[in-house]
Design a protein that fits this description.
By secondary structure, the protein is mainly alpha-helical. It has helices at about 5-30, 65-90, 100-125, 135-145, 145-160, 210, 215-225, 230-240; strands at about 165-175, 180-185, 195-200. A hairpin with a 4-residue loop joins strand 1 (about 165-175) and strand 2 (about 180-185). The chain starts with a helix and ends with a helix. The chain binds fe (ii) ion (FE2).
Length: about 240
């Protein structure tokens, strides 16, 4: 074999190997491994959590409002998340399922998950006296200068979303190890490495029935019903 022929043979072999590697990589990225509907990730078995308080006993938030919010908006998100998970399993079983359509399902998975989690944090911290206490109250005073200064910024953040949609979220940022009132335009807006401690729903469905467009009065009512023992437990778990 001449040098030219040998080099050509080596080059052809190298190209073939590269092609095989690329094909393997591509095959891996686009692998069509059917998802088992029994797998937890695609089971679609999320169950709504009951309200941890009597909705007729809150101050300034009507039973009709709370019940409607819990039944329609929250449970609707739970049902939606379950549907999306089963659709993801079906899509994974379809080799021809378009990537752009899969993108839509993944977006909706994130959206519904955010809604379920934030609503559970919202309802889960209601039913209290509104009187701050515990290590979280002390920490907020330290970070913001005073508890009132924290509360003022929390309310300002909430009102910046009034008339639109979103969440005002007191968050423990595990990366910066600090507390912040974060602005969330929708269910998918969360601080990276953030653990929500208080989630205030600023979508109009959360207050319009009781307060119309008077969102500030709704924020007052939310604060008056906060269970700070719950918030403190979340904080202590987050910093542990
Ligand atoms: Fe809501």
């Amino acid at each position: 074999m001449s040098d030219f022929t040998r080099r050509q043979a080596i080059g052809t072999a190298a190209l073939s190997a590269t092609g095989a590697a690329l094909a393997a990589t591509h095959g891996s990225a686009a692998a069509q491994v059917p998802a088992s509907a029994a797998a937890a990730a695609f089971a679609g078995k999320h169950a709504p959590k009951p309200l941890p308080f009597n909705p007729a006993k809150l101050t300034g938030l009507s039973e009709k409002l709370i019940t409607s919010h819990w039944e329609n908006n929250y449970q609707g998100s739970v049902r939606g998340l379950n549907t999306i998970e089963t659709r993801l399993a079906a899509a994974m079983a379809d080799p021809e399922f378009p990537p752009v359509a899969y993108s839509g399902l993944k977006r909706e998975e994130l959206h519904r998950t955010g809604s379920v989690v934030l609503h559970e944090l919202y309802f889960g911290a209601l039913g209290g006296s509104g009187n701050p206490g515990g290590s979280i109250a002390e920490a907020l005073g330290n970070w913001f200068g005073s508890h009132d200064a924290w509360a003022a910024e929390f309310r300002r953040t909430a009102m910046s979303l009034a008339g639109g949609s979103g969440w005002c979220v007191l968050t423990w940022n595990a990366h910066t190890r600090s507390l912040h009132n974060y602005w969330a335009w929708d269910h998918m807006h969360g601080a990276v490495t953030g653990t929500p401690l208080i989630a205030l729903d600023m979508y109009e469905h959360a207050y319009h029935m009781d307060y119309g467009t008077a969102a500030a009065r709704y924020v007052d009512a939310f604060m008056a019903n906060l269970d700070w023992a719950v918030v403190d437990a979340r904080y202590r778990a987050a910093i542990a």
